[in-house]
């Protein structure tokens, strides 16, 4: 998932970006409404996190402008203004959700996940299964043959993508774009390293191998 954070408080923006990154997501940051508007128009984001009060252009104005352009990217408004009229104004401006400061980080993450699932119909699934391999997207857990498998955030994201495309050949380009958010080839072995680590966790201890290399094409996860 790729998220745009539009927040003039650099400390807050940095903390949100760090939290998203640790969960395996990609976060871009803008520090005022004008830059946020420009970045939102140029990039393909899954969710926008927008502070309400910012220099140059406020968050609600930014969202309204995007909606006028036909941009339907889900937007979570952050604000210290928490009265009913304030929340209503935020939703009428085009916000999809409204979170009052101060907030619990876990609640922010939960709301972002909900907005992302609204945008991507396939993401509505909260559990994925391929053979005896199971993934719970809400609990962020993976099990095979009933045994828990501990994955790093990027490994989890990689496995999620492979499971969503089980039985299909997934190319390196697809992985770079969807898992690492690279729209170019960084000329590194980052995919090979992560595939090797993932294979050692979900395949090596078990009799049946599920993660296969398709020579010259990519990878396929199948039961």
What does this molecule look like?
The chain is α/β, with parallel strands linked by helices and 223 residues long. It has two domains: 2-121, Response regulator (Rossmann fold, 3-Layer(aba) Sandwich), CATH 3.40.50; 125-221, Arc Repressor Mutant, subunit A, CATH 1.10.10.10. It contains eight helices and eleven strands. The chain has helices spanning 10-22, 33-42, 59-68, 84-92, 105-119, 153-164, 172-178, 190-202, and strands spanning 2-6, 26-30, 47-51, 75-79, 97-100, 127-130, 133-136, 141-144, 147-149, 211-214, 218-221. A five-stranded parallel beta sheet has the order 2-1-3-4-5, sandwiched between helices. It has a four-stranded antiparallel beta sheet with strand order 6-7-8-9, with helices on one face. It has a two-stranded antiparallel sheet with strand order 10-11. The protein is elongated. The mean pLDDT is 89.
What is the mean predicted local confidence, pLDDT?
Answer: 89
Number of strands: 11
What is the multimeric organization of the chains shown?
A: single chain
The radius of gyration over CA amounts to 19 Å
CATH class of the largest domain: Alpha Beta
Offer a few descriptive terms.
single chain, 223 residues, alpha/beta, Rossmann fold, Arc Repressor Mutant, subunit A, five-stranded parallel beta sheet, four-stranded antiparallel beta sheet, 8 helices, 40% helix, elongated
């Amino acid at each position: 998932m790729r998220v745009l954070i539009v927040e003039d408080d650099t400390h807050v923006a940095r903390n949100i970006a760090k939290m998203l990154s640790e969960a395996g997501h990609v976060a871009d940051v803008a520090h005022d409404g004008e830059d946020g508007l420009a970045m939102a128009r140029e990039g393909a984001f899954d969710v926008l996190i927008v502070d309400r009060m910012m220099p140059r252009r406020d968050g609600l104005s930014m969202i309204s402008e995007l909606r006028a352009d036909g941009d339907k990217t889900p937007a979570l408004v952050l604000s210290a203004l928490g009265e009913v009229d304030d929340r209503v104004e935020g939703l009428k401006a085009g916000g999809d959700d409204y979170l009052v400061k101060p907030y619990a980080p876990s609640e922010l993450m939960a709301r972002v996940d909900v907005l992302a699932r609204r945008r991507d119909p396939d993401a509505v699934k909260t559990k994925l299964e391929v053979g005896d391999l199971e993934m719970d997207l809400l609990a962020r857990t993976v099990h095979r043959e009933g045994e828990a498998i501990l994955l790093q955030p990027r490994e989890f994201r990689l496995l999620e993508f492979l499971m969503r495309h089980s039985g299909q050949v997934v190319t390196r380009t697809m992985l770079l774009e969807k898992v690492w958010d690279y729209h170019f080839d960084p000329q590194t072995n980052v995919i090979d390293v992560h595939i090797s680590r993932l294979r050692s966790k979900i395949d090596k201890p078990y009799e049946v191998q599920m993660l296969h290399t398709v020579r010259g094409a990519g990878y396929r996860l199948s039961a």
